[in-house]
Structures are given as structure tokens and as C-alpha cells.
Amino acid sequence: MTTTFPASSKSLHFNPSLKRNRLDQFLTGLAGVFSTIAVLPLILVLLYVLIQGGRLISIGLFTQLPPAPGLDGGGIGNALIGTVVVTLIASLIAIPVGVGGGVFLAEYSSGGWFAQFIRVGNDILAGVPSIIAGIFVYGAIVATRVFFGQSYTAAAGGLALAVLMLPTVIKTTDEGLKLVPRELTWGAIGVGASKFVTVTRITLPSAFTPIATGVVLAIARAAGETAPLIFTALFSPFWPEGLFNPIATMSVLIFNFAIMPFEPQNELAWAASFVLVVMILAANLFARWLRRFAAK
Amino acid sequence: MTSTKQATPATNTCLALENVSISYGSFEAVRNVHMDIPAGKVTAFIGPSGCGKSTVLRALNRMNDLIEGCTLKGRVVFDAQNIYAKEVDPVEVRRRIGMVFQKPNPFPKSIYENIAFGARINGYKGDMDELVERSLRKAFIWDETKDKLKESGNALSGGQQQRLCIARAIAVEPEVILMDEPCSALDPISTLKIEELMHELKKTFSIVIVTHNMQQAVRVSDQTAFFNAEAVEGGSGKVGYLVEFNETERIFNAPVQQATQDYVTGRFG
Description:
The complex is a heterodimer. Chain A has 12 helices and no strands. Chain A is mainly α. The termini of chain A are far apart. The mean pLDDT of chain A is about 85. Residues about 1-10 of chain B have low confidence and may be disordered. By secondary structure, chain B is of the alpha/beta class. The two termini of chain B are about 20 Å apart. Chain B is built from 10 helices and 10 strands. Chain B has a domain at about 15-105 and about 175-265: P-loop containing nucleotide triphosphate hydrolases (Rossmann fold), CATH 3.40.50. At the A-B interface, helix 7 and helix 8 of A face helix 2, strand 6, helix 3 and helix 6 of B.
């Protein structure tokens, strides 16, 4: 009986000189190199920020105002508060509107043209560069001075960030609700629950975790945005003076101070970068924890 | 196609279907169903897959409203009112005609809250603890759950979950309970428990059950409706219709229609 297969040595041992094994090793190595290069920026950016900013962390950093140009010391206290304030305004607008919109899409719309239009529009809005959100709010609110004749305000900055957060919140709510088993909804309807009671008492609580995760990620993204804030919230070297005045934020502080020709300001920019990175990292970890909490 | 009205039994009618046809979009699922479902009895719907028996069941408490494009022609009369009349609120219908589903679907809440939910949204003013205990007792699940009322309903076994769902349905004191293949996801022992439960429940409620299991229909039901589907000229796919509706004993031992005879003796389906 003849065979067309090459004569093998009958050995079952691994033979490194075979062509397929050599190619295998080569490609494994290549994939390893590329993945290392891929994570390099991540590690370098984080390390660089941690080293450059981390050494500047002190209590004064969080409690003091930035120094006037030419002076030493100071902190980023006002920008820290400003970022929290602006993000809070954005969340207060984007979460109710976004969750409400998501509930409409997933529970109330019947997939007609209006719902389709919102879904597609929402996806497009999610991809719109953040500076467009800024210029929109600038044109609509800052330039027209609708807020008590004020131009640049914390409220305008919050609105710009809300525009950025909205698509993420709508999308995660919509998809989170769609993941709730239909049987659960039927169960509630079957014992005589109205649509509203079903959504608020059964469906929304069941989808709490995916929605909360999406919201946390949206907040983390908004907190780090610079472009929409530059010409809405502007900046202020002073402590925040209410919602209808310009306000300092961390991202704009970094933008302003990093390019100044003064060493103390450059250092503060690094310190602010460090704090911002840690805040966003914490938000992401919290979102991951939420997700794991749900998996249980 | 048979659409003859069957002889009405001497008992009170609980739900009357008058020339009911149900369509999903342009696809007609069931055509010209006439039947009088008796009160205080167990009525079983049997038939091969796709014959529309679940569709008809879900039409009885307007669950089909939740399905996009599902329309019903004809009348479904309950308590002297057509439940498909314009002024009828489907929420009110479902409060009086409860439902148990194929897959056990307890709410992701505690066992206690699963029962209390329906009562609360229906404005129950009495002693909630007492209602929860009574409902769980009626569903034969009190002994298994009395020490863990605060635990999640999802922690129970499949059979226990289904009995919890039955307890949830009876807690709002409906007049009719619809069951859509309630045992198809359960093991034989759990199935047996639910069948025993049905014998007990029919003293208080009218029950309509869809089942794929003919033995189950024989064991639990007083009346049986046999549905079948056949291709019609000009139609897209098969259309379901009611072949025969009579006392269970007659359906299984002396059916009038040949199709029923073939089905119950296992020659098809």
C-alpha cells in the first residue's frame, strides 16, 4: 500500500525544525511585538504623567489658587472644584434627558421613522468632535448672552458637556433596557401593571447596572474634555463665583498652563494632569466594579 | 375549514370568543374561532406547533397588544363586555385575567416582593403579610419559602419559580388564570406538583392552559379544544383554526373530527 504522505519518524515528540513549527513561532513572536508596541503609548503616557505630576502632589495643590504669572507655588483648587461643578451640571442635564430618551426608544417607540431617526442621529452625535459641541453652545448661549447677560459661564460649559454625554447615556439606556428579558415585562403586565409601572418598577431597575456603567463612563469622558469648555466656561484664576460666571476647569487649566513660558505653571499643568488621570481611572474602575457587581 | 359552533355546555360561560381571527401584520395566524370557555373549569388548548393556540390564549387578556402589528377581528366577551372594545383599558382586563408564562419569570426581587408587587400596584389595602402567606399557601409553595421570604425569587429552582409565578398571579385575585405551557420547562416532579395545584385552583378560578403534552391535557382539564393549522389558497403559510371543542373525555375517546382522532392517537403532530 502506497501513501502520499511524507515518511514520518513515528515519533510524537515536538520537532522544532519543521516548517510549520518555525512559522508558528515566528508569527507568535511577531504578534507579541505588535501588541507590546500597542500598549507602549498607554504605559508611557500613564507613567510620564504619574512621574511628572505625582511628585508635585501636596495638600496645597488642592487648597490654593494658581499663582499669578511669574510667582511660585499655588495650587489647582479652583479648577478641581470647577471640574466637579461643570461635570455635575452636565450630569444633571444629560442623565434625566438621556435615560428618558433611552426609555422612549426601548420601551415606548414602535420602531417607526421617528425612533429610527433618533437612533441614527444619536449615533452620529456620538461621533461628532467635541469642539463642535463647544461651538454650538458658544453660538447658542455664550454669544447670545442668554444667561443674565453673561457670556462665558459655568452653566454654558455644563451644557456643552451635557451635549457630549447625551449620546452615550441614551445608547446605554436603550441597549440596557433591550437586554432585560421580555418575560419579565410580560410578568409585570400580566399581573395588571400599567406600562409606566412596568418600566419604572421592573424594567429600569433590572437594567440599572448597564445604565449606571454607561453613565459613569460618560461622566469620565466629559470630565476630561477641553475643547468644548475653552469657549463656553472659559477660565478663571479665582475661586468659582456661581454658575453664571466663567469657571476654571482642570482640562482648560492644563491647556492654558502647559504652554505658558513659566516653570511653576508648567508644573501645575502636570499636577492637574495627574489628578485628572487618577479621577478618570477611578471612574473607570468604579464602572468595572459595577459591571462585576451585576454579573453576580 | 371548520368553524362550527360547538354545543355550549350547561355551565356558565366565562370567556366567549365570537368569530375571532388574529393576524400578525398581513399574516393571518388564526381564523374564525368560536368557543365558550366555561367558568370554574380547566380548559386545555392542544394542537401541533404553529396552530395558533398560544396566540388565542394571549388574546384572552390582551397580551397580544404587546406584539407589534398583531390585530384581532371578532369579539372576546368577558363579563358581558367585549374586551377589545375601544373604551376598554387592557390593564383592567389583565387585572381580572391573570397569566402564567412558559418560562418561569419571577421578578428580580425578594419572594415576598414578588407576591406583594401585583397587590400593591392594584391598590391592595389589607394585611400584606397575610396576603403573601395566603397566596404562597394556595400555590403549594409556602412550606418551601416561609423561612426565606427575603431571598431573591431567582434563588429558587425552576419548579418552585413557576409555583411562585402562580402565587404571584393569584395574589391579585383574578377571575381567570391563563397558563401558556406552564410545565414545558420543568421536570416531571415539578410538573406533577403544578398539575395537582391546578386541580385545587379550579375551585376558585377558571383556568385556561395551553399544553403540548396530551397526557397533561387528559390529567388536568375538563374541556379540551383541539387546534390545527392548514394551508389555505392565496394565504402565506398555514392558518390555524379550531377543529373541535368538547369535554376532554369526548375529545380523547370519541372525537367527531378525523383530524382530532389522528392527533390524539399520535398519528401526526
